[in-house]
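[09:14] KT: can someone run the structure on this one? pasting the chain below
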Amino acid sequence: MRTSNKKLYLVACLFAPLMACGSDTTGGTQVKLPDNCTSGQVLTTDENAQLVCTTLPVGSQVLKDCDPLVQAITSLDGATIVCTDRNNENPGGADAVRTVNQVSNTLNTIETTVNNLLGSRLTYGEFKGVTTAMTNGNIVMGASRGIAGAAAVCAAQFGAGAYMCSVYDMYMNVARGKIKDTDSVAKSWVYMQSWKDPTSSVSPTITVGLSDNCASYTSSGNTTYYGTAVEWTTLSSGSKGLKFNAGNVAPNTALCSDMLPIACCL
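[09:31] RB: done, structure tokens below
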């Protein structure tokens, strides 16, 4: 045998259904490599399970998705790449492997479906940062205003799909370790609907959830509505913590007239 055939043999490991890669023997029997392989050919087996040289298909072809542990990729005619059953595979064993593969695929599909269903119930946005743009509680971006306007401002800086974080997004980012002790979040607008008017007067805004979000971020006035602004900062305890500013009681105010960045999630 020529030494050059050893190089072809390494390539053939990708194609030959019977080849025991890493050895010139299979099942303890000496296997002689063909001596007439030329450039552009690889080893495969013919219908008699004998090692032969075959020409690689010309041009670009998509590799087949062969059955794992049952089939191998090869080229029998030098024109196309095909999947062939391994010649040393017991037919009953091959059927059993195919059944296992089918069951495994079904389980994977079920797992993906369940995860998607759970994800739709438990989804929260990943905190991306705060905007460089500052705005009061009447958030406008182009033709969009309010919550949609805030999303447009976030998307302009952090990409399509970004939006104003809610207080629950911020909590989940800390709880899941997305926001760390080494991070800092400057005071910035977040969405909160608490149905709790921070003023002492009774107002219809209590019952419709507008009092802590500047009327769904459409108001810059301070007579009825207030906003909510988050900080991730060092607390009086000495540890980092989430701080939610709201209402008009100093020093933790969130007046709708305040100019603040927006906390954005995606």
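[09:33] KT: thanks! The chain has a mean pLDDT of 78.
[09:34] RB: yep, looked fine to me
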